[in-house]
Design brief:
The complex is a heterodimer of chains A (291) and B (332). Chain A is mostly helical and 291 residues long. Chain A is built from 11 helices and 2 strands. The chains are: A mainly alpha (291), B mainly alpha (332).
Chain lengths: 291, 332
């Protein structure tokens, strides 16, 4: 019998990574009504960028900043200027469809230029177990959890305690008024895209050692992030964090106690129930409808 | 449309239909397979176009309905029943599930609805994969027989292509009549302004559910043809990406245009084949082409034509106005 504590810890560790991805997802939605169907592929790609840097001869510690930087350039700046900016005026749906096409494009590019096989990826947290209260606990889970929590705390305090963070929130909540009081809204929106690119690169760094680097791994990740974002609340950063943790734990517990075959079904059922009975999410505000 | 334009349209349609019947006679097995696949995917996309393009409900579950139809057909024919029985089961099943899936559409809209249908799509995939007693699990169902139509065997690729084409013809005619009926107009009213539609006495609840159910049932029809076309099915083709592909077909062709799905499916099924000489790059190029098209025209290919036509009409009208004005000015 697997013990509950291990399951909870592993669940929280993957859940914390889902949270990071889901936060980026909700940030894009808030500031520019972008439903990024390529978010999972955004998480898959940076690991390959880092692998490419390592193949080019860079050591792992150098490959990480290179990967993050490239990711910010490609998935932040490039994504915004080449895809979102020209599509934004067309409305939510065409933009969402364009991100679906982008997801196919990224997957195929990785398959073509790197490999169709899964590649191992070095972990920044050493493998092994530590003993806590006389019980062996996976160091990797602990390390991932600690790093992810650090990232989440860093991001929320950036959003809530710094002037730029406040300006970003203002730009997201009410661009017109924000512009009047002198917030450089365009720059704030760009910043959101860069932050999202940074977050997915971080998530990539944390999750790829667990799941291996594979071109198709974005599908599962993207879906987990969607579900996390919606369950928690599409328009709330803290909602996305709570949703991510919840989905991670539910996923792991249902694998152990419900059925390994249907483990993926439990978060989906949770999603449907939440949408039907509390569409704004557990922690979200109701969105005003303009009919 | 003007009278000569109408005749031109009919003539063009007749030529295209004749070409679809005559040209493939010389095709090899693979070419016929691709064309049959186009016909099948077009049927599924027509269904989605009804839900999305006419009624304005975003569905990411059409691929799951194709899967339900395909499994219904495969399981029924494996029991020795005729394909038409599989078709019946598929249509009824998809209609009923589509109707139930429409209920969230009554409560939530737009992206939330997309996510409910996305969740359903993945759930359906899990059922296909895990319920081995019914679906054969990951091993799938093989040796699916092709039907006898009026006593004629359609085992060979060409006759079966005609089965797919004929089915596409029947579905097209039915949907053509549907969108021109009061029902079709109610669907459009639903998309354009649900509140006003309600105030005009349209039962928006019923029509939303109806749009979902009919669109889903057409997905089932496509699935019923898909199973005997490939003669082997497993869960993989019916995962979420099929639903996303179908949605892209509808948008790329032009959502809300009758011929949008035909074009969209043609691009999604045939363009990768034409780009095959680029080897591994073809899906990448396809993705880039779709993005560029959407940037240029978010309403799809038929959106470009429509835009061009209405632009020409506006120009023609303003020319007429200019003439009229100049006559007024020169009048004594």
């Amino acid at each position: 019998m697997l013990n509950l504590l291990d399951l909870l810890l592993a669940g929280l560790a993957t859940g914390a990574i889902y949270s990071i991805v889901a936060v980026g997802f909700t940030l894009l939605w808030q500031t520019s009504q972008t439903i990024n169907f390529a978010q999972g592929e955004f998480v898959m790609l940076p690991a390959f960028l880092m692998l490419a840097a390592m193949q080019a001869g860079a050591p792992f510690w150098l490959a990480i900043p290179i990967g993050i930087l490239l990711s910010i350039l490609l998935l932040g700046l490039g994504f915004k200027m080449l895809l979102v900016d020209p599509m934004l005026r067309h409305g939510v749906l065409p933009l969402a469809i364009a991100t679906m096409a982008l997801a196919i494009g990224i997957k195929e590019a990785v398959k073509q230029f790197f490999s169709a096989e899964a590649s191992p990826f070095p972990s920044i947290v050493p493998a092994g177990d530590v003993s806590i209260f006389g019980r062996a606990v996976s160091l990797q889970s602990l390390g991932v959890l600690a790093l992810a929590i650090l990232a989440v705390i860093g991001l929320t305090s950036f959003l809530n305690r710094t002037s730029i963070g406040h300006q970003m929130q203002a730009a997201a909540q009410n661009p017109t008024v924000a512009r009047i009081i002198g917030v450089p809204v365009e720059r704030m929106i760009l910043l959101t895209f860069l932050i999202n690119a940074f977050l997915v690169a971080l998530a990539s760094l944390l999750i790829t050692p667990i799941y291996l680097a594979k071109f198709s791994s974005g599908e599962v990740l993207g879906q987990a992030a969607f579900i996390a974002a919606i369950v928690g609340g599409f328009n709330q950063v803290r909602g996305a964090i709570a949703g991510g943790l919840l989905i991670g734990v539910v996923d792991n517990l249902s694998a152990a106690y419900v059925s390994t075959q249907y483990r993926a079904a439990v978060p989906l059922l949770l999603l449907i129930v939440i949408i039907l009975f509390r569409p704004q999410g557990l922690l979200g505000r109701a969105e005003e409808r303009t009919v | 449309m003007t009278a000569p334009g109408k005749y031109l349209g009919i003539a063009l349609g007749a030529i295209v239909i004749a070409a679809l019947i005559v040209v493939p006679i010389g095709f090899n097995r693979y070419g016929l397979f691709i064309l049959s696949q186009w016909a099948v995917m077009t049927i599924a996309a027509i269904g989605l176009n009804l839900t999305l393009g006419y009624a304005g409900q975003v569905s990411l579950a059409q691929g799951a309905f194709v899967g339900i139809g395909a499994y219904a057909a495969a399981i029924m024919t494996a029991q020795g029943l005729p394909l038409i029985a599989g078709l019946g089961v598929a249509v009824v099943l998809c209609f009923a599930i589509g109707w139930m899936l429409g209920y969230p559409a009554l409560r939530v809209q737009h992206h939330y609805l997309a996510f409910v249908t996305l969740a359903f799509s993945t759930l359906a995939f899990l059922v296909f994969r895990n319920e081995e007693w019914l679906t054969g699990g990951i091993y799938g169902i093989s040796n699916i027989p092709r039907p006898h139509i009026f006593g004629l065997a359609t085992n060979r690729p060409l006759p079966f292509y005609y089965v797919c084409l004929g089915s596409l013809g029947i579905v097209s005619l039915a949907v053509w009549r549907l969108v021109r009926s009061p029902w079709g107009r109610a669907f459009v009213a639903l998309r354009e302004n649900p509140v006003r539609a309600l105030s005009l006495g349209i039962d928006t609840r019923r029509y939303t559910l109806m749009a979902f159910a009919i669109g889903s049932a057409l997905g089932g029809v496509a699935g019923t043809l898909y199973a005997p076309l490939t003669q082997y099915i497993d869960p993989v083709p019916f995962n979420l990406s099929l639903s996303l592909d179908l949605l892209m077909m509808v948008i790329v062709g032009g959502a809300g245009f009758f011929f949008g799905p035909f074009l969209g499916a043609m691009i999604a099924v045939l363009l990768p084949e034409w780009l095959r000489f680029t080897q591994g790059y073809y899906l990448m190029l396809y993705a880039i082409a779709v993005i560029l098209l959407l940037i240029y025209s978010p309403s799809g290919i038929l959106g470009i034509l429509d835009h061009y036509r209405s632009g020409r009409r506006t120009r023609a009208m303003s020319a007429l106005r200019a003439v009229a004005e100049s006559k007024l000015e020169t009048a004594p």
